[in-house]
């Protein structure tokens, strides 16, 4: 069974039935209040879709304290319908203003507290902010998945020592940072994702079924049979997100 641990069904332009089709389990990640509501709806309609509710770091900057509270409350109120808190984190690539970065950090701290409170794993965005994200995540008492991680070798090993998992996108071999992570992280700590509709490995809009490209390429670089990679990643997914 293929697994797309991180995508945004609500942002895809194609018909949703088409986006979610395939023999695949999908975790759709919310990015703001509206998006979180849609994610819950899709998880209710489609049996292969699971919900992660979150707040994209750049979206967080647009919100008043009251609106922020509303997002957090919504996540808490729906904790029994979700498998993770995501997409959340910090982004110093798009956000370069120090004051705004400070706000991102404050919001992320509150989100880590929230994940601890509701006891759900975190799916973390840390673009150009690996060091800071890892330092803030010391407070996390829940499992952590680093999405599209591009940290250096030391940071990757630090995260591995803490037991974190890493998602590699369907086009991971096209970007040096993603490729390095896929090479450094052992297969029992890797999860696959597409970040659909973004990061497509082929022409056109990305979709969850394209996660098979990541599996294929992982098989190549890890020198493991493709079917074994698929099985291992499904095991990793179960370990991370399914409470038995
Ligand atoms: Zn994303």
Structural notes for this entry:
The model has no long low-confidence stretch (mean pLDDT 97). The longest helix is centred in the middle third of the chain and has 21 residues, at 98-118. With 244 residues, the protein is an alpha/beta fold. α9 packs across α10 (226-241). The protein has ten helices and eight strands. Strands 1-2-3-4-5-6-7-8 form an eight-stranded parallel β-sheet. It has one domain: Metal-dependent hydrolases (TIM Barrel, Alpha-Beta Barrel). The chain is globular and about 50 Å long. The structure holds zinc ion (ZN). Residues 6, 8, 29, 87, 195 line the site of zinc ion (ZN).
Secondary structure topology:
Blueprint: E1 2-7, H1 16-19, E2 24-29, H2 33-45, E3 49-53, H3 57-60, H4 65-77, E4 84-89, H5 98-118, E5 122-125, H6 130-136, E6 144-147, H7 153-161, E7 165-169, H8 176-184, E8 190-193, H9 211-222, H10 226-241
Parallel strand pairs: 1-2, 2-3, 3-4, 4-5, 5-6, 6-7, 7-8
Helix pairs in contact: 9-10
Bound molecules: zinc ion.
List keywords for this structure.
244 residues, alpha/beta, TIM Barrel, 8-stranded parallel beta sheet, 10 helices, 8 strands, 44% helix, globular, binds zinc ion
Return Rg in Å. Answer: 17 Å
* Structural class label: alpha/beta
Give a short account of the largest sheet: 8 strands, parallel
Q: Might you state the CATH topology name?
A: TIM Barrel
The string of secondary-structure elements, in order, is EHEHEHHEHEHEHEHEHH
Top-tier CATH class: Alpha Beta
CATH architecture: Alpha-Beta Barrel
Strand content: 15-25%
Name the hetero compounds present.
Answer: zinc ion
Q: Percent helix among the residues?
A: 40-55%
Q: Indicate the mean pLDDT.
A: 97
Runs in which pLDDT lies below 50 for 5 or more consecutive residues are none
Question: Helix count, per DSSP?
Answer: 10
The total strand number stands at 8
Tell me, briefly, the overall form.
globular
Q: CA-to-CA gap between the ends?
A: 18 Å
Write out the strand line-up for the largest beta sheet, numbering strands in chain order.
1-2-3-4-5-6-7-8
